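Table S2 (text version). Query chain:
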Amino acid sequence: MLFDSPSSFGRTFRIVTFGESHGAAVGVVMDGVKPGLPFDLEAIQKELDRRRPGQSDLVTPRNEADRVQVLSGVFEGCTTGHPIALVVFNENQRSGDYKAISDLFRPGHADLTYDRKYGIRDPRGGGRSSGRETLARVAAGAWARQQLAGMGVSVRGFNREIAGIAGASVDWAFVESNPLRVADPGAFPAQRAAVESALADGDSVGGVCEVWIEGLPVGLGDPAFGKLDGLLALACMSIGAVKGVELGAGFESARRRGSENNDPLGPDGPLKNDAGGTLGGISTGAPVVVRLAVKPTSSISKTQKTIDRDGHAADISTKGRHDPCIAPRIVPVAEAMCALVVYDAWLTQQALREGSVAPLAEWDWQAIEEIFRG
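Corresponding structure-token output:
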């Protein structure tokens, strides 16, 4: 099963996230981890630091250290083979910011649907629907990325577009040195100005996040419902602020002829990569390129029309500490979800063949690629 509950994800490597924005803590339980593997908590903390709030004047000023703690599954720096529980305690909640809107539904947010579905909701920051839940995903994804790195696979992302302003070049060294995590130094000033303008207006803007998965072998993913690109799309769409996902040329491919869109094949693999690293849902060995449409932050101070729990018309202005653009903090979350999918697909394929052939890492990928191309 890909998910056994609304808060779980994965087949062979499984995670369950828990906690609310203004509750005591947020965390994740990871299951399916082999015993005896080195456990690097600081590497996980590093990824959480990339996601945490309060990093610049272009994100929410909520000041959370987001220090992660291990509750189980690790002994003397190694995994025990049992579920690993990671937790981050909330320290800087200001629940009073939401008292005035506790009976109102914020436009664009999950308030109305949560209330109608469950008959109860936590208005403090959105409770379970808050973006704070994503820190649990980042913690688990950081572990998956560590394991993939040992297999020669890298997962890295940036924001291709902010507020409709697209970057043309990719300078990886620039990505982590600017508050928007964009990759084009030339486009950054205009992108920053757009975010600052929205913030001054009590409004917000969106963006387009792009993730590159490099170093994958040929053969990950399965036909029909286990397609690698399908699983990546599902994982990325599960991020609250994401409203669209594409791989490779994506929606642009709908505007082309087949002769233009198809990737010609050569002795060393595809001659271009508009397919985005998969064919038939199976990895080709080319980089897998995933793009996510990130909507503007729903919680804004600009006055909007809404209704209360009784259906009466009302005006609402959301106070508190919110991101004028959530896209910069989406990047590590998107990387984490992609890493979780790829690591799970790798382990699932390995498990299917366990006992009959060598683990994937030991396969002769050159021979396999020759068979694939033949």
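Notes on Table S2: Residues 327-353 form the longest helix (27 residues). The chain has a mean pLDDT of 89.
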